[in-house]
Sequence to fold (196 residues):
Amino acid sequence: MLQLIYSPTSPYARKCRILVRELGLEPAITETAANPFEDDEILLRANPLGRVPCLVMDDGRALTESALIAAWLNARAANPWLSDWDDRRLEALGHGLLDLAVARRVEMVREPGLFCDFWITRRERGILRALDELEVEMAMLASPVSLGALTIAVALDYLDFRYPESQWRRQHSALAALHEGWAARASFIATAPPPG
Ligand SMILES: N[C@@H](CCC(=O)N[C@@H](CS)C(=O)NCC(=O)O)C(=O)O
Fold:
């Protein structure tokens, strides 16, 4: 049995959990919740980096990094998604958007007086540039069900979760359509972060 260690609010982990469901791998995987910020023992034993997601494979070795875990799960599926270099390129862009959104969140939750306008503004400008670029990319998207598209949809949903005031839909209708398609899927609904 494979073990996927995740936290319910982590978008990186959510991407892997959605993929597990989309690829029909649920019977082969146990999902174990852990809080990386409380240094949960189960997580630290599997991943010295102390981050989620982490996938413990059948032989006990662990995979870290959501993109690597996703590629590994896809390779193991009976009906894998096609993933070419262009899809990987989009996946990296979506992943970068996610990194910026998470970094912005980290900056926002610092104690008053510690958070830094420079970093918040810098992250926000990066998020906007990435959204503009991805909006253009949507016209050339080969398939809305791919690792690239999934990563982008998860990043957009994370913006709604942690940055609801961003109003990213206003100038990005193609991204809004991609998100809407994903938001209706059972895998997306089943892995939604808890409110709050
Ligand atoms: N590049 C990693 C990022 C994973 C990551 O940063 N996860 C966060 C949760 S959203 C975490 O575990 N943070 C704990 C920490 O940084 O100490 C991936 O793609 O898996």
